[in-house]
């Protein structure tokens, strides 16, 4: 992994002075998740409609947080949760928005602003949709304005959804916590009442069995470690050539290794057989293995194009078919359903010069996820994608220095994310508390300036 010496320098006394005087970016040290730490340190201020905020307040109080409706002008604020669930015209945004604005100068470092509102797509009323889209716009803009490692995100509720649904609390907790350190300017949709809050928030995946492909190194190894930390038993998958590294990761997470090329016709069946043989169950599959073979389209050859499509998307479609045909990956109603989480990329959203093959495959992942959602829901499960932006890995360490430095700073947090940041979002989407969210692509990109 390439070292981000600039961020380290900025976070020294002298470094801060010099870089501020020169007007240079100010990447902050981000607050990251620790199972033994509180969800967030300091007061959480609830603003907006009272009925809904009473429901959310009960969760926050249950998590031991200091919940306030008002706060003194000199007090520091850890988070603001702004409820817009009943706005009917853009003119109605004003009171709550300006109240949020009034608190921004009191925010602590790595603070959170979270907006909660109904999905704009679920109304045909122009004024109501305009108001809801307004919440989207203001949340994204606020994310660009946050300082000192702070983020702004939204929770978008289905029209009919009861705000007391477990997955609303699950999304709120994820966004408040250090798990979402590198998620900013994004929206988590909650579409169903499905979901269950864990007895132990430090082990939300207790008793579950997860498979992670491409887990010998990089983001995949981080996913395996994070799922293991959260209580899952983990099968790590990678190509035979990466066997030694794969065995090391398997040992570290007290899991099992499966050497497999995911482009094999029977890769899905091999995964199912392994899970059946060693654990007798399979709950979570993370399609992380992926490759790049960059070339401008004018110079593209069939081996580069076909290999990227084969590894990054065709293999996933084939494996999902096998999973969905298997009783091992099915659940009776009322139990925690199976989960699939795929790795997309911001390149698949915005496109990227030299990556037409990669962007086609990653946009394909997003299409697959949204189209497969109903099939998973029929099994009481979910399928989602995570789109990382610039993440500090061996892959990005190989970029030329200047390109890497620019790519790293081109987001609202002015730094690259870590493999753990991607892993935390995947662990959240795989957890029972996210059962109400399916078909979503969630970006982990520090609000990268490319893409939507
Ligand atoms: P990496 O190259 O470090 O690791 C990928 C792993 O997948 C390797 O261990 C490799 O052996 C394995 N793999 C490749 N082809 C395989 C196959 N056919 N069968 C089984 N295993 C195979 O990559 P990374 O940076 O850790 O990225 C992981 C995922 O995240 C990829 O899907 C990538 O596209 C995506 N992603 C990464 C970034 C980033 O900044 N690093 C950004 C966006 C998306």
CATH C-level name of the largest domain: Alpha Beta
Average pLDDT, to the nearest integer?
94
CATH homologous superfamily annotation of the largest domain = NAD(P)-binding Rossmann-like Domain
Indicate the low-confidence ranges by residue numbers. Answer: none
Bound molecules: nicotinamide-adenine-dinucleotide
| Bulk shape | globular
Largest sheet: 7 strands, parallel
Strands of the biggest beta sheet: in what spatial order? 9-8-7-10-11-12-13
CATH architecture of the largest domain: 3-Layer(aba) Sandwich
Instruction: Classify the beta-strand content into a percent band.
Output: 15-25%
Pfam families: adh_short_C2
Protein name: 3-oxoacyl-ACP reductase
GO molecular function, one term: oxidoreductase activity, acting on the CH-OH group of donors, NAD or NADP as acceptor
Family: Belongs to the short-chain dehydrogenases/reductases (SDR) family.
